[in-house]
Amino acid sequence: MIRYCLTSYREDLVILDIINDSFSIVPDAGSLLKERDKLLKEFPQLSYFFDSEYHIGSVSRNSDTSFLEERWFLPEPDKTLYKCSLFKRFILLLKVFYYSWNIEKKGMAWIFISNKKENRLYSLNEEHLIRKEISNLSIIFHLNIFKSDCLTYSYALKRILNSRNIDAHLVIGVRTQPFYSHSWVEVGGQVINDAPNMRDKLSVIAEI
Q: Is the pTM of this model over 0.85?
């Protein structure tokens, strides 16, 4: 399993330690991320991270884009869609409890370990199904008694869509000065539960 995920934001290097569920920032090292020899020559203390299995993510397309740090808001349910039955809501809530409890207790490592690797295809006729599953999840998510944040919501949405044979990916983005991390879901390279230009605002440190 990958131990570290790395990316850069402006001049900063950001490291995600999956096992310890923590982020680290190394100022002025970001520009050397893709030049390993130069990076380790100038920052020899980073050799520890490169001796383990690691992944290098993508850099924000426009780090000058303003990004308002604010509390994450749960997506509003789509009132134009048919609401799922109470039984389905109950089953969905149990899944959310399971995902959020494990994320709260076991951290990022559990997400990587439990990630399913099946290859699935996406077609445009699945857009209605995606909208419906987002709406259904939003209806019950406020009842979650465990960790409720963008990571939990996005991971739950990814797993729900995967179970419907949709190749959804959890994406984790970061920025620095001040530090901020955020999670969203993409299908076919498109953001489905957040602003479409998230990759312009944040550097992607992990895709699951």
A: yes
Q: What gap in Å lies between CA 135 and CA 153, rounded to an integer? A: 12
Q: What is the pLDDT of residue 48?
A: 87
Distance CA 149, CA 153 (A): 6
Amino acid at 53: E
Encoded tokens for 68: 């308002």
Q: Is 57 helix (H, G, I), strand (E, B) or coil?
A: coil
Distance CA 208, CA 155 (A): 9
- Render the burial of 124-142: b for 16+ CB within 10 Å, e for the rest: eebeeebebbbbbbbbbbe
| Among 53, 42, 41, 45, CA closest to 17 | 53
What the block records as the tokens of 114 is 């439990």
Q: Six-digit token pair at 155?
A: 């991971």
Quick one: pLDDT at residue 125?
65
Alpha-helical runs (H) found in 107-172:
108-114, 127-141, 150-163
Residue whose entry in the numeric block shows the structure tokens 């923590």: 22
Give the SS3 label for residue 139. helix
User: What is the DSSP-derived secondary structure letter of residue 125?
Assistant: G
